């Protein structure tokens, strides 16, 4: 176990996102390889940004599942020397924190987004395997009242054995309201973190549909999974056609007024049904994670 960020040597950059930078690192003592995600805070960083980072840290420390990228440690106030090959520093004792670092299991196969870039589309058998693992991960999270909130190809990572796991809890939160009151789909901290809205469910954009209990929030993860599996089969983002303008307005039109989404001609009836159950516009009618785990497409 890593006691100090001094023990890690930076090898390469694995990814950039809204949240920060992810490095491939080597533990000097054991030569084990890890991924290190560093969220940097500027002096003027919005309070919401820090708050959500703290939320991400709390969640990754709590989750422990074979379907979720493992986090081995979170370093508060660790300091990364820019332009250097070595990560230095432990706590700077300031309490405020200039960055927050997550030491994670290294996912050698990259993201599902990388996989799709390389292979365009996946056969249904593989998609079924991806869906099953994501659903098991979601069952675990939802059981802990955690909404992932950002299921998309770049947040689904593949390990050396080809196993897919859920990553990036950068917009996740624990649903606390139980009946009564509306959820807060757009609290400012999460708004700051929105990289893309493309995988978000229609109800996320419609305050009228939010209600107490947070059921709609869990249903949002199911919608996103539906978009992801269809993308794997179609080989492109499925909600906006090749001839359509890839912008916010088009996406809204498709989500709110669009008919059935386009399916590959070769899609099996089981696949069509599975996607249909995920992309049900009314979240109350949408399949739940437990229902989908029983779906013939997975079995
Ligand atoms: P962000 O909040 O910036 O989106 P992510 O946690 O999604 O951060 O990481 C960004 C990218 O870095 C991912 O899409 C992936 O390509 C890469 N990455 C993240 N974590 C790992 C990991 N554990 N192993 C390998 N690559 C990773
Ligand atoms: Mg991400």
| Total count of helical runs of at least 4 residues | 8
Low-pLDDT segments: 79-97, 178-195
Q: Largest beta sheet, briefly?
A: 5 strands, antiparallel
Element-level helix/strand string: EEEHEEEEEHHEEEEHHHHH
Strand content range: 15-25%
Report Rg. Answer: 20 Å
The distinct ligands, each listed once, are: adenosine-5'-diphosphate, magnesium ion
User: Mean of the pLDDT scores?
Assistant: 84
EC number: 2.7.12.2
Family: Belongs to the protein kinase superfamily. STE Ser/Thr protein kinase family. MAP kinase kinase subfamily.
Protein name: mitogen-activated protein kinase kinase
Pfam families: Pkinase
Detail the topology: elements first, then pairings.
Blueprint lengths: L7 E9 L4 E7 L5 E8 L6 H16 L8 E6 L2 E2 L6 E2 L10 E7 L4 E2 H8 L4 H20 L2 E2 L8 E3 L5 E3 L6 E2 L13 H6 L21 H20 L13 H10 L11 H10 L10 H5 L6
Antiparallel strand pairs: 1-2, 2-3, 3-7, 4-7, 5-6, 8-10, 9-12, 10-11
Bound molecules: adenosine-5'-diphosphate (ADP) and magnesium ion (MG).
Adenosine-5'-diphosphate binds next to β1, β3, β7 and β8.
Catalytic activity: L-tyrosyl-[protein] + ATP = O-phospho-L-tyrosyl-[protein] + ADP + H(+); L-seryl-[protein] + ATP = O-phospho-L-seryl-[protein] + ADP + H(+); L-threonyl-[protein] + ATP = O-phospho-L-threonyl-[protein] + ADP + H(+)
EC number: 2.7.12.2
Family: Belongs to the protein kinase superfamily. STE Ser/Thr protein kinase family. MAP kinase kinase subfamily.
């Amino acid at each position: 176990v890593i006691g100090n960020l001094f023990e890690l040597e930076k090898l390469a950059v694995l990814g950039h996102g809204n949240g920060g930078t992810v490095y491939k690192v080597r533990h000097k003592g054991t030569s084990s390889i890890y991924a290190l995600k560093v969220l940097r805070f500027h002096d003027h960083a919005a309070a919401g940004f820090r708050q959500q980072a703290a939320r991400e840290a709390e969640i990754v420390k709590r989750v422990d599942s074979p379907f979720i990228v493992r986090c081995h440690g979170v370093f508060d106030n660790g300091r990364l020397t820019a332009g250097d090959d070595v990560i230095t520093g432990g706590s700077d004792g300031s309490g405020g924190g200039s960055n927050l670092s997550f030491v994670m299991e290294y996912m050698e196969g990259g993201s599902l987004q990388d996989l799709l870039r390389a292979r365009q589309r996946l056969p249904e058998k593989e998609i079924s395997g991806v869906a099953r693992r994501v659903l098991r991960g979601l069952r675990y999270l939802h059981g802990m009242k955690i909404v992932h909130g950002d299921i998309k190809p770049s947040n689904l990572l593949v390990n050396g054995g080809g196993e897919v796991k859920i990553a990036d809890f950068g917009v996740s939160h624990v649903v606390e309201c139980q009946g009564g009151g509306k959820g807060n789909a757009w609290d400012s901290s999460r708004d700051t973190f929105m990289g893309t809205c493309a995988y978000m469910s229609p109800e996320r954009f419609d305050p009228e549909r939010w209600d107490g209990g947070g059921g709609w929030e869990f249903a949002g993860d199911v919608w996103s999974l539906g978009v992801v599996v269809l993308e794997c089969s179609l080989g492109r983002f499925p909600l906006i056609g090749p001839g359509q303008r890839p912008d916010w307005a088009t996406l809204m039109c498709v989500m709110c007024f669009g008919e059935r989404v386009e399916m590959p001609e070769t899609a099996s009836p089981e696949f069509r049904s599975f996607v249909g159950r995920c992309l049900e516009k009314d979240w109350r009618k949408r399949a739940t994670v437990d229902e989908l785990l029983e779906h013939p497409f997975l079995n």
